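To close the chapter, one final illustration. This time we ask the reader to focus less on the individual chains and more on the assembly as a whole: which components sit near each other, and how the overall shape emerges from the parts.
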Amino acid sequence: EVQLLESGGGLEQPGRSLRLSCTVSGFTFTNYAMTWVRQAPGKGLQWVAGIASGGGSTYYADSVKGRFTISRDNSKNTLFLQMNSLRAEDTALYYCARNDFGGNWFFDYWGQGTLVTVSS
Amino acid sequence: DIQMTQSPSTLSASVGDRVTITCRASQSVSTWLAWYQQKPGKAPKLLIYTASTLESGVPSRFSGSGSGTEFTLTISSLQPDDFAIYYCQQYWSYSYTFGQGTKLEIK
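The assembled structure is written out below.
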């Protein structure tokens, strides 16, 4: 059974940092690109960042470029999102999601999300 | 960035109804379009990709069509489990944008 489990969310002040993790099981992690998608409270979905299966290529939404870093540890089946210089508008539920096996940027499995709240 | 616009924003319908949700892209995305269903407090669930391919395990009452800039998601006969929010998403180009969502509610 495919499972994705996010952790690391919480309440943080503007300008500070948080590191999210997503531990996966039930599939060969190294075969899949992975993605972070966020959802602000009561709002829609926003693609945040993605990483190729080998980790060599990363992609970011303009709103987080230069502040967030996506990475992965294929030996530990874990995806990360390092979030620096946090802003109030980063407040959201952050989902990790698995890209389609063909490497396309749609998402066939999602975790349950970890909540990030940025507030002083 | 490609903008995705769904209509309607809210749709009221009854069990057994046939319903259609429309998604329009600000420029052509070919058939690189997916549909997701999200229930309260849950993660999104993939329903359809490449505009019309049904994800494994998704009931056949769901169908998708379209290409270019206009797409539709149709539910042929609404079931109680189908009341949720539906999102389209283009994956033709960065930044893989989602529509704003269509809330399907019970009439």
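Chain B touches chain A through 23 residues (CB under 8 Å). The mean pLDDT of chain B is 97. With these observations in hand, you are ready for the problems at the end of the chapter.
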